[in-house]
Specification:
single chain, alpha/beta, five-stranded parallel β-sheet
């Protein structure tokens, strides 16, 4: 069972021992500022990575871990603008003129096609990056790190006593992509007598006073923590994911809470969320209630379908409701056993390592097949003539050409033909 940092350190070790020059870059200490990714280098133990900082940023290939959060070009640009001392502006004032997409491309631009490791499917952002020579590796990091976060609950047994509430939900934030949760809580407040909601201490408290007795101080770390007593407070877990009003599928550690807590679940996430789980071997509850909401791509219709399912369960009389919950037990047991199994762990690791091995081969080939990589194509777009090239970029171009002259003269020749206006003879 690995922590996020251990996963990234393992990848760095793997890259080094396989004599690759690629640089694994990850966000440090939960930061979302792309500058943190840009400058967070921890590859000093690899003899195959350049030590010249000007060249390390542009000559060696990147493996960027945008895996824990969904990729959003606008949000990443905003993080750069609003978080910390963005001294790249002093080096490259042209950054402010770039579009949000081009800014993202700049962060990973090098002579080799960048590899981007992520945990989303049906993603416009990933498809866009692939069109700009990014090599994508999908793996489910939330599965790996959830096994670590929730490892302490592995030997705990379910209390079979009857729970007082039919539904339970956790929701701490309501901004941005999570704004749909307010609409959900408004619907749930109509049946609040059957809903357990542990309420955060924030400005929304008065609005949802129907749950006043459940008020609690909830921090940003709460998603990585389970209050075990909650499995005795409600039966059906309503998983309020980070993304809902979207076409992409992106499931986090939230979906594993009900699995660990022996609970059936209804997922409020992007379309295909249940299918995503099934692809990893988990079972869902289509034999117990209508799960056609998972196929609905229109977020308003999907939301209404989910509310209909919740209301239909809430309207069951006590006998039929107890029969329904009894029907879910074999599925919850199966899912929990699978989550803690070595089979699941190996499937997750194999997905990552097999995808990475294929990507590394493509990355190596890209050095000669796409001379100049994203770096030169982006600079070609940034500078209309060779006279207005930023001095910092001029130095990088000169260093790269000098190295190519020694190591890869054929690539240098192709580069001069393709980007003659960037290269001074």
């Amino acid at each position: 069972m690995l922590t996020p940092n251990q996963i990234y350190d393992y990848l760095r070790y793997y890259i080094s021992t396989n004599e690759k020059s690629s640089i694994v870059r990850s966000f440090k200490d939960g930061s979302k500022n792309p500058l943190n990714l840009f400058f967070h280098q921890d590859n000093s133990n690899s003899p195959y990575v350049s030590k010249d900082i000007d060249r390390i940023l542009k000559y060696d290939g990147f493996i960027d871990m945008y895996d824990q959060e969904p990729i959003d070009f606008v949000e990443i640009r905003n993080q750069y603008r609003n978080d910390g001392d963005n001294h790249l502006d002093n080096l490259y004032p042209e950054l402010e003129k770039l579009s949000d997409l081009d800014f993202f491309l700049f962060l990973s631009a090098s002579m080799c096609s960048p590899i981007i490791c992520h945990s989303e499917k049906n993603s416009y952002e990933i498809e866009t990056l692939k069109k700009h020579n990014f090599i994508d590796v999908h793996y489910w990091i939330h599965g790996l790190i959830s096994r670590f976060w929730y490892s302490e609950f592995r030997l705990l047994l379910k209390n079979e006593k009857r729970n007082p509430k039919r539904f339970g939900i956790y929701a701490r934030e309501f901004n941005g992509t999570r704004s749909y949760r307010l609409k959900l809580l408004k619907e749930l407040s109509k049946i609040s007598e059957n809903v357990y909601y542990r309420y955060p201490l924030n400005d929304y408290f008065n609005f949802f006073s129907v749950w006043k007795e459940n008020q609690e101080d909830i921090s940003a770390n709460s998603s990585a923590y389970i209050n075990w007593i909650d499995h005795e407070r409600f039966d059906i877990h309503l998983v309020a994911e980070t993304l809902f009003d979207t076409s992409k599928t992106h499931l986090t550690e939230k979906v594993f809470k009900p699995i660990v807590m022996y609970q059936p679940f209804i997922i409020l996430g992007g379309p295909g969320s249940l299918k995503y789980l099934k692809d990893y071997g988990f079972k869902t509850f289509d034999s117990c209630w209508d799960e056609s909401y998972d196929l609905e791509t229109d977020s308003i219709k999907r939301f209404n379908k989910i509310v209909d399912v919740i209301n239909s369960i809430n309207e069951l009389d006590d006998f039929n409701y107890r029969q329904l919950i009894a029907k879910t037990r074999s599925i919850t047991e199966y899912n929990r056993n699978l989550f803690y199994s070595e089979e699941f762990n190996m499937n997750l690791m194999n997905e990552l390592m097999e995808g990475l091995d294929k990507a590394l081969k493509i990355q190596e080939e890209s050095f000669t097949k796409n001379p100049g990589g994203n770096l030169f194509s982006l600079m070609d777009k940034m500078y209309k003539t060779k006279d207005d090239i930023n001095p910092n970029h001029k130095k990088i171009i000169k260093d790269i050409c000098n190295k190519l002259k020694e190591d890869n003269p054929e690539v240098l020749s192709q580069l001069k033909l393709k980007y003659s206006k960037l290269i001074n003879e």
